[in-house]
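User: quick one, sequence for these tokens?
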């Protein structure tokens, strides 16, 4: 018997399609789209596909990072970033006065966070290991950028998050928007993404699990959004081959060239997208990302 990984409904699903070995279903109860099987491919799979050169990681600030960093409020001091990547966001949050902690299972990313951005409290663990080791710890705010869609047990995860928050603590979540016109991309399918959300089903998910949603926002469609989508959609393969060789041989020069090629491709699509967006903006299209700022509900 199939069970929805988000609301635990049984056999109340609509089959959407098959993608590789995965079946995609739409839960009629909570409106989430999920894959069967719900299997995260693990550390090795991600490390083979996510690369950053150690000396020049070329991180670009995302919309959801700016949303939080430009917020004049202070919700700390202890901030945990789950799936922290290379640590750029943590370095910026530290400048605002937060005592920052980060966890990510990508060993290259945690190395960059320590050595390039100087993050001391960085933990190279998967999520379950981290919560087991940090049982009893409490954080004022936890940020979860582009993580939930990767997880095989989103319900258990949000409950774990709540267990390490202080009473009336905060969470910030960003997640891909399945209503984005260019959402249909291999990066949004399993095994990379196991669930797909819109703003309504995510809000209900958070509220069912004891969070008051204070801010919810859909990113506005713009030329940068379109450029990201086109960059991911059209692949020549050269950069990926260089990155793969660099990771396998521990060759930083190959990774730097691959990163440079990716940056050039993005800039080309940025110019194209700027022109195309002039014609698309009048249609009031939704952007690629959803953002939620929430607080643990008061105990009644």
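Assistant:
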């Amino acid at each position: 018997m199939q069970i929805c990984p988000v609301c635990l409904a049984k056999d109340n699903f609509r089959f959407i399609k098959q993608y590789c070995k995965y079946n995609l279903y739409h839960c009629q109860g909570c409106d989430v789209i999920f894959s069967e099987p719900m299997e995260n491919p693990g550390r090795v799979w991600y490390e083979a596909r996510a690369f950053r050169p150690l000396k020049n990681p070329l991180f670009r600030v995302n919309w959801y990072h700016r949303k939080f960093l430009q917020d004049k409020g202070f919700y700390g001091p202890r901030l945990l970033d789950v799936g922290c990547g290379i640590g750029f966001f943590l370095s910026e949050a530290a400048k605002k006065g937060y005592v920052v902690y980060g966890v990510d299972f990508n060993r290259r990313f945690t190395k960059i966070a320590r050595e390039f951005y100087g993050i001391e409290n960085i933990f190279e663990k998967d999520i379950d290991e981290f919560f087991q080791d940090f049982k009893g710890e409490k954080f004022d705010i936890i940020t979860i950028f582009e993580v939930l869609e990767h997880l095989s047990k989103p319900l258990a995860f949000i409950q774990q998050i709540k267990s390490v928050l202080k009473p009336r603590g905060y969470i910030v979540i960003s997640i891909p928007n399945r209503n984005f016109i260019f959402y249909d991309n291999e990066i949004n399918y399993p095994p990379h993404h196991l669930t797909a959300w819109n703003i309504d089903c995510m809000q209900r998910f958070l509220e069912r699990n004891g969070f008051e949603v204070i801010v919810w926002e859909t990113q506005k469609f713009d030329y940068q959004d379109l450029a990201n989508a086109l960059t991911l959609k059209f692949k020549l393969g050269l950069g990926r081959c260089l990155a793969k060789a660099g990771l396998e041989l521990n060759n930083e020069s190959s990774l730097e060239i691959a990163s440079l090629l990716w940056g050039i491709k993005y800039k080309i699509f940025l110019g194209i997208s700027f022109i195309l967006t002039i014609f698309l903006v009048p249609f009031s299209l939704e952007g690629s990302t959803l953002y939620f700022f929430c607080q643990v509900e008061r105990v009644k």
